[in-house]
Amino acid sequence: MNILEQIAERTKERIQKKKMIFSLAEQRKAAEENSRLAPSFAEALRQSELSFICEVKKASPSKGVIAEEFPYLDIAAEYEQAGAAAISCLTEPYWFQGRDRYLREIASQVGIPVLRKDFTVDEYMIYEAKEMGAAAVLLICGILDDGQLKAYGQLTQELGMAALVEAHSEREVERALRAKAQVIGVNNRDLRTFQVDVGNSIRLRKMVPKEIPFVSESGIRTSQDMRVLYENGTDAVLIGETLMRAPDKKAMLRELRGKIG
Ligand SMILES: O=P(O)(O)OC[C@@H](O)[C@@H](O)c1c[nH]c2ccccc12
């Protein structure tokens, strides 16, 4: 099993345990009772020439612990003040050291949309995301079949959220398009090998119609990376590690943005 499959399996177990404590029916009810409409994720990505989705992430399978100190609320506030279009918050606990409560607290504190970054493998997680105040969930093509992609995308929309559908290859972009993804992200990191290639987004950008916001994810470090992505029609970038390691996140965002947008 590659790492992506391992995480997906572990996530299924995690959700089974949660369901025993709080059933799917109860979770659905809790989601439906949260009538607060989160700000629109897709709209937020259309607000500027090149939008930033800034990630709150303590650790990752490829890098281990990235931020020993992890004042997640301060980090989220700093991202918002620096002009982030949206925040991505990890909730996966074992490889990324995420927590549901990080997302819950961040979403209640900031005015910009928050993406629940997790390995969605069950509709239960979509109800949870809604209940927690997320504006969007991640659907990874590599761990979902076509039926799930479609059904989870629909449920997400019914609950007033958006799905960021993540692809890594031509075939997966085709699948995302077929599933009527509202927002498509291309991961520059191969979650099977951890190899990073920003060229992956550039290659796959051409397959996605202009009306669908296109997000380039992972491994973005320099204003040079940003320029190349921008020139090739990227609408938004999703940046984690580079920002998490920067002592002054506002300055880092300014530097990355350079002369763009
Ligand atoms: O820290 P980076 O290299 O800037 O990457 C951020 C984000 O793209 C990455 O965390 C990510 C992309 N797809 C994922 C799926 C699950 C968990 C995490 C991810």
Task: Describe the structure concisely.
This protein has 261 residues and is α/β, with parallel strands linked by helices.
Q: What sort of overall outline do the alpha carbons produce when their principal axes are compared?
A: globular
- At the fourth level of CATH, the homologous superfamily is Aldolase class I
The hetero molecules present are:
indole-3-glycerol phosphate
CATH architecture: Alpha-Beta Barrel
Instruction: Provide the spatial order of strands within the biggest beta sheet.
Output: 1-4-5-6-7-8-9-10
Mean pLDDT: 96
Structure class: alpha/beta
Helical segment tally? 12
Q: What percentage of residues falls in helices of 4 or more residues?
A: 40-55%
Please report the total strand number as a whole number. 10
DSSP strand content: 15-25%
H-E string:
HHHEEEHEHEHEHEHEHEHEHH
What is the top-level CATH class? Answer: Alpha Beta
Please report the distance between the alpha carbons of the first and last residues: 42 Å
CATH topology: TIM Barrel
- Integer count of domains: 1
- Major sheet size, sense and barrel closure: 8 strands, parallel, barrel
Query: Low-confidence spans: pLDDT under 50, at least 5 residues?
Result: none
Radius of gyration: 17 Å
EC number: 4.1.1.48
GO biological process, one term: L-tryptophan biosynthetic process
Family: Belongs to the TrpC family.
GO molecular function, one term: phosphoribosylanthranilate isomerase activity
Question: What does it look like?
Answer:
- This is Indole-3-glycerol phosphate synthase.
- It catalyses: 1-(2-carboxyphenylamino)-1-deoxy-D-ribulose 5-phosphate + H(+) = (1S,2R)-1-C-(indol-3-yl)glycerol 3-phosphate + CO2 + H2O.
- Residues 4-256 form the Indole-3-glycerol phosphate synthase domain.
- Keywords: Amino-acid biosynthesis, Aromatic amino acid biosynthesis, Decarboxylase, Lyase, Tryptophan biosynthesis.
- Pfam families: IGPS.
- By secondary structure, the chain is α/β, with parallel strands linked by helices.
- It has a single domain (3-257), classed as Aldolase class I (TIM Barrel).
- Helix content is 44%, strand content 16%.
- The strands form two sheets. Strands 1-4-5-6-7-8-9-10 form an eight-stranded parallel β-barrel, surrounded by six helices. A two-stranded antiparallel ribbon has the order 2-3.
- Helix 6 links the parallel strand 5 (114-117) and strand 6 (136-140).
- Helix 2 runs parallel beside helix 6 and helix 4 packs parallel to helix 5 (100-109).
- The radius of gyration is 17 Å and the shape is globular.
- 46% of the residues are buried.
- The model has no long low-confidence stretch (mean pLDDT 96).
- The structure holds indole-3-glycerol phosphate.
- Indole-3-glycerol phosphate binds at residues 55, 57, 117, 166, 187, 217-220, 238-242.
- Indole-3-glycerol phosphate is lined by residues 55, 57, 117, 166, 187, 217-220, 238-242.
